[in-house]
Amino acid sequence: MEGLIQRIKKAEKDADELIKKAKKEAEKIIKEAEDKREKIFEQKEKQREEKMIEAVKKAKERAEASFKKLDKSIQEEEKKIEERFNKGIKRAKDMIIKELTS
Question: Residues of 74-94 as b/e, b for ≥16 C-beta within 10 angstroms?
Fold first, then answer.
């Protein structure tokens, strides 16, 4: 009977140790999973930031191209206006000269 009680106590002690080891292993697995989840989250966050940076760069490039186009268009319009103005001045000069000489 005494041997049986000691075997039961030893079995309980072994079971407690197994439970402690299993708990420790479970905590380790949970910690690793949390670390992995955090790392994945950080990677995704970094990817989002990189995509945003790329989108901003592309938008800036498009805006610059649009600005250059608009600037060129404005310059062309200024040139046309200047040409018309110069033609008008020449016509006015010619008319004045014609009036003065006749």
Answer: eeeeeeeeeeeeeeeeeeeee
Q: Is the dihedral of CA 86, 87, 91, 97 positive or negative?
A: positive
Single out the residue of 42, 68, 67, 46 nearest to residue 54, CA to CA: 46
Whole-number Å distance between alpha carbons of 61 and 63: 5
DSSP per position, the chain = -HHHHHHHHHHHHHHHHHHHHHHHHHHHHHHHHHHHHHHHHHHHHHHHHHHHHHHHHHHHHHHHHHHHHHHHHHHHHHHHHHHHHHHHHHHHHHHHHHHHH-
Residues 16-74: tens digit of each pLDDT: 999 999 999 999 999 999 999 999 999 999 999 999 999 999 999 999 999 999 999 99
